[in-house]
Amino acid sequence: DFSDAFSTGPGAFTFADGGTFTYASAGQTPPTLSLVSSDGTAAGQALSVAFNTGTPLADAAAAWDGFGLYFNMCTDASLYSGISFTINGDLGACPLQFSAQFSEDDDVASDPSFGSCTAATCYSPSLQPVGVGKTTVRFADLTGGNPLTTVDAARLTGVHWQVSPPTGAAAASCSANFTVDDVSFVP
Q1: Would you say the C-alpha torsion 107, 31, 166, 163 has a positive or negative sign?
Q2: Cα–Cα distance measured from residue 39 to residue 42, given in angstroms and rounded to the nearest whole number
Q3: CB 3.0 to 4.6 Å from 158: which of 34, 42, 70, 174, for a disulfide?
Q4: Which stretch of DSSP H or E encloses residue 6?
Q5: 155: enclosing H helix or E strand
């Protein structure tokens, strides 16, 4: 619930077992992260996310923005079947996807501490679309990673959410403002 999170710089937060990160493809604008009250008190916090991607590139495969939570260690979540989280707010026209990161699909150059992927292209299995409300994503529902196409729950390094703004003739910036809260493993 981000109640133990604290700022380590503009839009960057650390919590007991990890922290936050943002990213964007060339020409795109990464999201802005902040902490907001989730229950009207100072005790409960949610992660507030603001996307305004900017004008997308012509190539759909090259237009993406995202944010995530990294873990301070490879986490063995093999006793769990998935992850749940709550999204509240406005996703606009941004198609939101969710991914669980793990060592075999983490690029060793980007994540030298935990990454072991040396393939030309490394990316995590994902699920799209993710909407507003409480969502439970089973590890088995996440597909399409490279080089492994399914999640290795015994070697998780984090989770992330990503948008891919419209491209080509429908190109437009993608704007969304929402919170992420109640992130947890599920049996």
Answers
A1: positive
A2: 8
A3: 70
A4: strand 6-9
A5: none
Residues 43-93: pLDDT tens digits? Answer: 678 999 998 876 655 555 567 889 999 999 899 999 999 999 999 999 988
**Contact assessment for residue 102 and residue 149, using Cβ atoms and an 8 Å cutoff:** no
Question: Token pair for residue 61?
Answer: 């495969």
Tens-place pLDDT, residues 6-19: 888 777 888 888 99
3-state secondary structure 84-144: EEEEEEECCCCCEEEEEEEHHHCECCCCCCCCCECCCCCECCEECCCCCEEEEEEHHHCEC
The tokens of 182 are what?
A: 């109640």
pTM: 0.88
Tell me the pLDDT tens digit for each residue of 116-173: 999 999 999 999 889 999 999 999 999 999 999 999 999 999 999 998 776 655 556 7
Residue type, 137: V
The number of residues in the chain equals: 187
**DSSP 8-class letter at 164:** -
